[in-house]
Each structure stands twice: as structure tokens, then as C-alpha cells.
TrEMBL record:
Alphabetical GO biological process terms: regulation of DNA-templated transcription; regulation of nitrogen utilization
Sites bearing 4-aspartylphosphate, chain numbering: D57
Species for this entry: Magnetospirillum fulvum
Pfam families, per database record: AAA_lid_14, HTH_8, Response_reg, Sigma54_activat
This protein's UniProt keywords: Activator, ATP-binding, Cytoplasm, DNA-binding, Nitrogen fixation, Nucleotide-binding, Phosphoprotein, Repressor, Transcription, Transcription regulation, Two-component regulatory system
Protein name: DNA-binding transcriptional regulator NtrC
Domain Response regulatory: from-to ranges: 8-122
Amino acid sequence: MTMTTTATILVADDDRGIRTVLSQALGRVGYEVRTTGNASTLWRWVSEGEGDLVITDVVMPDENGLDLLPRIKKIRPDLRIIVMSAQNTLLTAVKATQRGAFEYMPKPFDLKELVAVVSRALSAPRAASSDTAQDDDEEKLPLIGRSSAMQEIYRTLARLMGTDLTVMITGESGTGKELVARALHDYGKRRNGPFVAINMAAIPRELIESELFGHEKGAFTGATQRAAGRFEQAEGGTLFLDEIGDMPPEAQTRLLRVLQEGEYTTVGGRVPIRANVRIVAATHRDLTQLIRQGMFREDLFYRLNVVPIRLPPLRERSEDIPELIRHFLAQAGAEGLPTKTIDSQAMERLKRHRWPGNVRELENLVRRLAALYSQEVIGIDVIEAELAGGAPPTDVIGAGIEGEGLSATVERHLRDYFANHGDGLPPAGVYDRVVREVEKPLISLALEATRGNQIKAAQLLGLNRNTLRKKIRDLELQVSRTLK
Ligand SMILES: Nc1ncnc2c1ncn2[C@@H]1O[C@H](COP(=O)(O)OP(=O)(O)OP(=O)(O)O)[C@@H](O)[C@H]1O
């Protein structure tokens, strides 16, 4: 390591406690430390050419630290800046990185880690900083939640922004893996290229290779013309391989070759094609167990697992639930459904729920609340009834919860719904709204059971294939990529 011990560090934070702690910790390692509680003093020091490194807070009385970043970078492009913030959203992490921060540290942080980051920042080579993206203040946050688990994820995402590293996202179903994959793309350097997703569990196994790599005319029966694969479609962008644990062995071997050699051939083709895609993979399965069972190639795992991101189940970050609920209620409101709030007792109950279906389950519940209940404030009774109704389904239609038939369950829901409107009537269009509520899970489950095979799903449902296709479109079910 270079001689960094005489470096001067400028610290700006309006919290005196933090200033003291940082002074002590950094002073102990031998740095010189100057602290201030406001942005203007920091700016003065920087513009006078002082300091070798800046550590700044975001929210300060006179100015937002993030707004200071571009100005500092302009006059002193080489000055390293570490941003610390208790305002912990993905946007803060991303903005800090976009505006040229060396590192972003969500508060509270580990002092040892901060000291390590400082030392890295001072010794890192002064390369031209990565191109900064346009930043859009009004941008909608794609990921909600400020739990420490989510903050760690934002931090990783911010770090990955300037890279093309392969990422493996693991987590239970509905924890937001696809959303994270999209954020990696949308905030990364390939954001102007395509984002292409493919779900291994939703495509018949025998078609996966040709879906991924494309095929030549005549490569197999039915291949009447050349078709581009997802690798080709994702050229210059990101390829999201969802449910990678379901990839058949031959496709695994082919994928491994692409990752090793950077080239692939189409099914039936001979000429190697250079691949220019960033790979993000995801799975809810335990890949190490699949490796042990001989169902997943270990060498492929290591090629994919360059940067692992583990999304924790919702029950491990229940402090995020109120914010997620507000977000989904607002979303429902923006779609024209009545706006609602949840009272505190109901909220507590929701925070205690185990959420086996994670954020997706929560999102669906909030949508039901917005669509099916007339009261503006949702109380504990409604929540209890809803959570009971979401109990695992039994295997026979007609034998629903508490021994009552499906029809009886539906009737009970509808009775409540009508009753909730007292003497008035619910908003017009009840028929379509209710039928949709039933159709959506039914079709979704049928597709899941047939691994996304629409012909089989149509047979199972007893529907004409075209009718099924239309319903999938109308209900906005995503089939080829993710089974919702
Ligand atoms: N942190 C979050 N903030 C806002 N919405 C979220 C968050 N996490 C998940 N969601 C929403 O929950 C739903 C499920 O997320 P997503 O499809 O990304 O999960 P997944 O882990 O990929 O699920 P699966 O493994 O079943 O494919 C989506 O509608 C997504 O928008």
C-alpha cells in the first residue's frame, strides 16, 4: 500500500456524533481529519484545494451532499468522495455512483469497513472515472424497501453499475429477482441495449437450445427457416437467464462454452458467432444441492456465480412491508382503483405474516384490497379474512378452506364485498373484475403445471388454444419468461 497515513480527510456531516466517531477512528490510523457540519464549508475547503479525500453525508442543513458531487468532480476530478447516507434508497446509491462517488456507505456502517474503504480510495489508481449516466430526478424507484438487507443490495447494485460482471441472483420465488436483474440493466452501462429475459422453466426442454442460440433452416423437424436466438436478440445488452436451475444438461454445456470462449453457434450452424451480452442468472433453487445431485454443472456454476446477490425472503425484512404496501396501493390508485389506507393494527398483522410468496404475494393481496373492498381504511378483520383465504389450496376443487367449497368461498368474499357497500352499490363492472380475479390464478397455475406449454395448458383447462392465448394477453400473464 502507498503511504496514505499523512493524507487529509474532509468530513461533512451535520451529526456531531458521527463527526466525532469518524475523527477518532481515522485519526487513530494516522490520517489528518477536518470536520464540518455543513456543505458550504466543505465546498470552501475543496475549492481551496484542501484535502485528499472527502467523506460526506447526503442531507445537510444548507445543501444536499449529492448536489455537491458534480461540482466537486468538476473542479477536482481526482478527489475521491465517499458518500454516507441514512436516506437509503436505491436511488441514493445509484445517484452517488453516477455522480462520481468512489463508494456509497449506508448508515449505520461498520467503522472498520469505512477505514478499509478510505484506504482503498486513497490508494486506488486515478483512472478516468466511468462515464456518468444521465440522472433523472423524477425517476420512479424500481425497488422499494430500506431494510438493511435491501440497502446492502442497493450498494452492490451501485458498485456493479460500471461493470459487465456476470451476476447470479438467488432468492425465494417472488422476492424480486427479475426486478433486480432489470435494475442491473437499467442503471448499468448497457442500459441503451436490449434487456432480454428467458425463463428456463417455462420453455419445453427440447426447445431451450434453439431458443437461446437460434437455429438454422432445417436444423430439426419444423425448423422451416432460420431463427435468431435470445443471445442474438440481447446483442449489446443483457440476457437474463431466469430459473437457471432448470436448464437441461446439453444447454448447460453449450452455455458454459459461450462463457469460456465468448462465442456460440446456432443449432445446426457451423460458424461461431461472437457473443456480446452481459449475463444475469437467477434461481430460487439451491444450486449447490443440484450440483451434488449431478443436475447442474459445477464449472458452469462458478462461471455464473461471479457476483452472487441473495435476495432475502420478505419475512426477514418485515420492516419494508409498510412502504411496499403504500407503494402498491399508490400503484393501484394510479390504475384507477380507489385509494385506501391500512390501519395500524392491520399493518402489524401484515408485518407478522410469513409471506411464503414474498413480495408477489403481498402485491396480489394489496391489489385485492384495492379492488374488492369499499372501505377507505382497511382494518384487521379484512386482513385476517384475506390471510385466511390465502391458505394453501387443497387438491380437490370444491373442497376449499375450512371444508367449504370453492363456490362457497367465492360467495363469502362477494357477500362481504356487497355488504361493505352498505346501502350503496359497488362501482360498475363487478362481473369482469370478479371473473378476472378467478381466471388469473387459474390460468397461471395451469401454465405453471404444464411448464408454460400453452397447448397442454389449453387441453388441461378445456379451452381453445386461441382463446387461451387471448386470455393470457388480456390478463397480462407473462408466459415465455416468467410464470406469474
Ligand atoms: N423490492 C421491491 N419493490 C417493489 N416491488 C417489488 C420488490 N420486490 C418484488 N417486487 C414485485 O413483486 C413481484 C415479484 O417480483 P419478481 O418477479 O422480480 O420476483 P422473482 O424473485 O423474479 O420471482 P420468481 O422467482 O417467481 O420469478 C413483481 O411484481 C415485482 O414488481
